[in-house]
């Protein structure tokens, strides 16, 4: 047992229906929860869930520990509360049940958190009518549609007074809006200040036919103010108001001045929308008499009637204006940019890639009008031939991320800015360049203690940083310390202890694009002590929330380190650790990858003593050909054993070969959506969504 500096706590987030905790940083108000209750449990939580809520102490946390359908509609009035599912529990409401959160003028400040709940034809509605402050976090919620004739579910937040902070993050919704001005995620600032984060949600309109409403909508009326940031969302289906719609002044008595930000979102309309009209709109901004200050940067829109549009409501005033910028967007639609001359002010536009029959706008000088060269209009990631690659205004993107406090991640939840110096970002919501695949040790490529990799991302690529995670594809066990090195023009995975490489060994291989967040590290006398070596890199320093991968690289220096390696964090720095306490050899080399947490870059905390640790994830569940990457982190006592990933029972697991994990062990996990979706032909993973 080793003595280390104190390790700060890591933010916890329940992943819906997961059998364990997934760790991710979820910025926002602290969870209300001075007193914790379990439902069903003892008084006051031994009857209905509503009775538990009504009888709980102020600022309480209620943890749902049953997967039985909850046949109640809940009211959470005038109080702070956290309501969440326990790890491994599918906290599902029976069809047609909802949650109402209401705050009246007589109440003080409130903090409400809903996390990890599932609704079928149900919704969550928040209404704040108070002079104080309201903070509402709605995270990891799932909304399902029971029948094609039903609407499914939605999230609504309405600010009628005071100041409201809304965090709507990582929710999954399928259904359709209830009307022409409704939305699947609806935000309204009605004479109040509303500041909202709408991050990393997945929304699918049920059915192939376009229709009324919006996917995500912000409406500012009657002097409503604030800023709404919309980042990393994917909206599929045809919405006449827009996949993302920002509105000012609809049916209002007085104008509003409101700020909106849209970064790294994907809007995909029904198939065929790039060849005709009537398919719904991509990102829309509509004003009546006031002003929207809009920054629309690095989004991707396909199959829409209008890719990005700004216009005035019918009957609107000549004072109506949309200021700001439309920058770095990929648009493959019937019309590209539609910026109405009726507006008193229009956003600037430049560095957009437009693949459209026409535009109603004066295009900026750096606009590219050419085929977008996407994988497809339904899967709009860039191919290697796309003119969007390295063509963005990178400085403006980077500044926008900083000024708006956004994660530095793209629509896949991976690094937003990649590439060698001088760094140039890609146009659109997806950043090109990362590769993942499965490698098998076969007779033609396996010699002694190594297996050589044959893949375009590694062959004749000496600068590639190669990562490998053992994959237990059969009964045989590869439980040896591994590394990578360049063997001639090829990279190889090898056994550090010199043991023979089994012919049936398999490895999940990850080759990230060059750039910030991937680097090589050498252990030296100055940065190493005992069994540790300290990492010093701007992508990691003082960033304890990072998701980090490590693989030993013998090509940096011909030094063997035949020991299981992992990570630990001491409060300011990350370290690579020989988990068996063996001294870290001088000049040992490592490939390191680091990025911000996201739905596809997360941590798993297993139960103490477990040896098969589930990795629940929409792109891993039911997808045996996925290629997850995993690195272990030491937090308390550690066990010096090896591990692999394996697929069985319809899901992925970390397999420690029967050795129980110790308390505090964590696993950093990276899932590449492009690889997982392509190999398994599963765009949407858990069956919640279907292609339009």
Automatic annotation (TrEMBL):
Under the heading InterPro entries, the entry gives: Choice_anch_Q_dom, DUF7452, Pectin_lyase_fold/virulence
Please provide the record's keywords in A-Z order.
Answer: Signal
Q: Where is the signal peptide?
A: 1-32
The answer to whether the entry has keyword Signal is yes
Q: Which residues form a coiled coil?
A: none
Start and end residues of each DUF7452 domain: 484-593
Name of the protein in question: DUF7452 domain-containing protein
Q: Which organism is it from?
A: Chiayiivirga flava
The taxonomic lineage of its organism, from the top, reads:
Bacteria, Pseudomonadati, Pseudomonadota, Gammaproteobacteria, Lysobacterales
């Amino acid at each position: 047992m080793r003595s280390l500096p104190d390790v700060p706590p890591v933010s916890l987030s329940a992943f819906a229906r997961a059998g364990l905790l997934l760790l991710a940083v979820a910025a926002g108000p602290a969870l209300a929860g001075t007193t914790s209750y379990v439902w069903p449990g003892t008084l006051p939580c031994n009857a209905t869930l509503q009775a538990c809520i009504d009888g709980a102490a102020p600022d309480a946390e209620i943890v749902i520990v049953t997967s039985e359908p909850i046949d109640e509609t809940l009211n959470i009035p005038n109080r702070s509360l956290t309501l969440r599912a326990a790890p491994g529990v599918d906290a599902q409401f029976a069809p047609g049940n909802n949650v109402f959160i209401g705050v009246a003028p007589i109440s003080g400040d409130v903090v409400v958190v809903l996390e990890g709940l599932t609704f079928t034809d149900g919704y969550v509605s928040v209404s704040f009518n108070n002079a104080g402050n309201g903070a509402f976090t709605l995270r990891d919620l799932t909304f399902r549609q029971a029948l094609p004739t039903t609407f499914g579910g939605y999230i609504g937040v309405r600010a009628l007074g005071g100041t409201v902070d809304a965090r709507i993050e990582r929710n999954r919704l399928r259904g359709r809006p209830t009307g022409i001005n409704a939305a699947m995620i609806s935000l309204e600032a009605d004479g109040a200040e509303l500041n909202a984060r709408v991050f990393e949600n997945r929304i699918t309109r049920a059915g192939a036919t376009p229709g009324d409403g919006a996917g995500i909508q912000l409406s500012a009326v009657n002097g409503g103010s604030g800023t709404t940031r919309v980042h990393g969302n994917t909206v599929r289906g045809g919405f006449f108001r827009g996949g993302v719609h920002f509105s000012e002044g609809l049916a209002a008595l007085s104008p509003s001045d409101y700020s909106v930000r849209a970064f790294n979102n994907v809007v995909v309309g029904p198939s065929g929308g790039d060849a005709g009209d009537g398919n719904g709109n991509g990102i829309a901004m509509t004003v009546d008499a006031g002003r929207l200050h809009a920054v629309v940067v690095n989004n991707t829109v396909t199959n829409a009637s209008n890719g990005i549009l700004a216009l005035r409501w019918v009957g609107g005033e000549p004072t109506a204006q949309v200021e700001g910028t439309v920058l770095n967007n990929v648009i493959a639609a019937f019309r590209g940019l539609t910026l109405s001359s009726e507006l008193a002010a229009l956003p600037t536009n430049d560095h957009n890639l437009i693949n459209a029959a026409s535009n109603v706008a004066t295009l900026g000088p750096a606009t590219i009008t050419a085929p977008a060269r996407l994988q497809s209009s339904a899967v709009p990631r860039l191919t290697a031939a796309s003119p969007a690659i390295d063509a963005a205004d990178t400085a403006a993107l980077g500044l926008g991320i900083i000024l708006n406090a956004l994660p530095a991640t793209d629509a896949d939840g991976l690094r937003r800015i990649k590439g060698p110096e001088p760094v140039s970002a890609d146009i659109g919501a997806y950043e090109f360049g990362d590769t993942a695949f499965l490698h098998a040790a076969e007779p033609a490529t396996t010699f002694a203690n190594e297996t050589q990799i044959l893949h375009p991302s590694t062959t004749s690529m000496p600068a590639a940083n190669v990562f490998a995670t053992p994959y237990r594809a059969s009964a045989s066990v590869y439980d040896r310390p591994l590394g990578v090195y360049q063997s001639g023009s090829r990279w190889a995975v090898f056994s550090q202890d010199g043991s023979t490489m089994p012919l049936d060994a398999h490895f999940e291989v990850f080759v990230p694009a060059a750039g910030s967040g991937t680097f090589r590290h050498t252990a030296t006398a100055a940065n190493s002590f005992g069994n540790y070596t300290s990492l010093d890199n701007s992508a990691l320093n003082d960033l304890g929330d990072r998701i980090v991968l490590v693989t030993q690289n013998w090509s940096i220096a011909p030094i063997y380190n035949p020991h299981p390696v992992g990570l630990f964090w001491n409060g300011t720095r990350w370290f690579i650790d020989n988990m068996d306490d063996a001294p870290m050899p001088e000049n040992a080399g490592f490939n390191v990858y680091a990025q911000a947490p996201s739905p596809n870059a997360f941590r798993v905390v297993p139960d103490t003593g477990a040896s098969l640790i589930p990795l629940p994830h929409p792109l891993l569940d039911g997808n045996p050909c996925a290629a997850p990457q995993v690195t272990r982190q030491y937090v308390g006592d550690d066990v010096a054993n090896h591990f692999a990933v394996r697929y069985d029972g319809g899901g992925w697991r970390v397999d420690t070969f029967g050795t129980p994990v110790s308390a505090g062990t964590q696993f950093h996990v990276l899932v590449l959506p492009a690889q997982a979706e392509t190999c398994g032909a599963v765009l949407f993973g858990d069956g919640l969504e279907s292609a339009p």
